[in-house]
Amino acid sequence: MAENLKTENIISTRNLVYKKSSILTDNVMHYCPGCGHGTAHRLIAEVIEEMDIQAETIGITPVGCAVLMYNYLDIDMQEAAHGRAPALATAVKRLMPDKYVFTYQGDGDLAAIGTAETIHACNRGEDFTIFFINNGIYGMTGGQMAPTTIPNMKSSTSPYGRDVEMMGNPLKITELVAQLPGTYYVTRQAVHTAGAVRRAKKAIRKAFENQSLKKGLSLVEIVSNCNSGWKMEPVEANRWMEENMFQYYPPGDIKVDGKILST
Length: 263
Fold this sequence. Notes:
Layout: H1 2-14, H2 37-51, E1 57-61, E2 76-79, H3 85-95, E3 100-106, H4 107-113, H5 115-124, E4 129-134, H6 164-167, H7 173-178, E5 183-190, H8 194-211, E6 217-223, H9 227-230, H10 234-248, E7 252-256, E8 259-260
Parallel strand pairs: 1-2, 1-3, 3-4, 4-6, 5-6
Antiparallel strand pairs: 5-7, 7-8
């Protein structure tokens, strides 16, 4: 009987395809079906678990869809005022330099309300990681146009599409901060396919590992959909993202080990 149970356990372990990270809590996520936030959360949790740094990690989330991230990851977390996560992360990392510190921010937060905090933290080369979720709109507050809304993209405040002549150009914040001397690793990824998920996880791990090098700030942008804000079904939203968002925000590394890659 015992031998049979042992054999069954071996077979079960070998056939295991996926196991939820122990860093993830059992709370049901509030994100809309098809949203990339849940996948991004899972990848961060898996990397923290694999690196065995749960007790050494501090996450900071401001206002936005990810404000309840503390409800889903079993790590120390702190909320920040809208856009101010990099400022708070600066204080935390300077007070506890041996901790792994990260911010998790949307585009309306990071590239609009928190532009100053983002740019100055990057320019100073603060030794923490920024995870930047870019879905091209303000997701939580009603789908308004954001600095990252691409030309002709519709939103609740640009129902006929973003008119560049009137509303200005989208802000490529990731390319912008890559030019700053304080950034060490800057990359843009996605999480809408299995291959994209693998690449995003690799980037997330590299960003965390860079903190031990103490050479500057790492920023990982994840281009994602917002099917609710875009008024699309999840599959349609992913297709639209590939055909439109990726044309303006192409995935790939932009700066590695302090060196900007040729384009």
